[in-house]
């Protein structure tokens, strides 16, 4: 097969480190009977060892040249290829009745945040996700209140998931080597019973507004949206900053506003 040149517009960096690959495969723990979906299989560095553990899986790949390579490398009985943009892909269209559903991938860094938010819409039907991402993004995902990395991404993903920062991956593990350190995260969607927001769209909008000027106090960033009386009714100090509020604080405030038709 001819050599594939990594394309910047697709954010392509191909994993080559065998130890890292083995650790990712072990983290997702594929088993026959699973509905396993890989995002961005690229040159099949993960796909091959995954298919040593499972007889069939799915792959979502946008690059048509890579789709052709994958079609030549694997049979249809091994790999079902969805030549689509993962940002628009319906993850429930894949074996709708089959469980457990697992999603894995070395995600393109240029679309990582919007892709994580897109996947959050499918959480009731996904059992576990294991992704390689830029380390800085994972630090934001798992950050606790009052930590520098804590922000909108932290709140909205922690509302949906239990997450583990598993291990870091150095640049030399890839071809071409990226300029940043990567890391691997494992994400377990929370049961629907734990998702307490009355209106998740309202919660998302409120969190985005609160972090729009993260160094300012909530009485300023939420001015016109929430009154001082309403903040205090939810046991939230008007002088607090968004980064000081827990996920539960944001949910409580959002529910109060929705339930009082604000």
TrEMBL record:
This is Ribosomal RNA small subunit methyltransferase A. It is found in: Cytoplasm. Specifically dimethylates two adjacent adenosines (A1518 and A1519) in the loop of a conserved hairpin near the 3'-end of 16S rRNA in the 30S particle. May play a critical role in biogenesis of 30S subunits. Residues 20-191 form the Ribosomal RNA adenine methylase transferase N-terminal domain. It holds the Pfam family RrnaAD. It comes from the Bacteria. It catalyses: adenosine(1518)/adenosine(1519) in 16S rRNA + 4 S-adenosyl-L-methionine = N(6)-dimethyladenosine(1518)/N(6)-dimethyladenosine(1519) in 16S rRNA + 4 S-adenosyl-L-homocysteine + 4 H(+). Keywords: Cytoplasm, Methyltransferase, RNA-binding, rRNA processing, S-adenosyl-L-methionine, Transferase. The gene is rsmA. Its EC number is 2.1.1.182. One of its GO terms (cellular component) is cytosol. GO terms for molecular function: 16S rRNA (adenine(1518)-N(6)/adenine(1519)-N(6))-dimethyltransferase activity; RNA binding. It comes from Formosimonas limnophila. Belongs to the class I-like SAM-binding methyltransferase superfamily. rRNA adenine N(6)-methyltransferase family. RsmA subfamily. S-adenosyl-L-methionine binds at residues 13, 15, 40, 61, 85, 106. SMART domains: rADc.
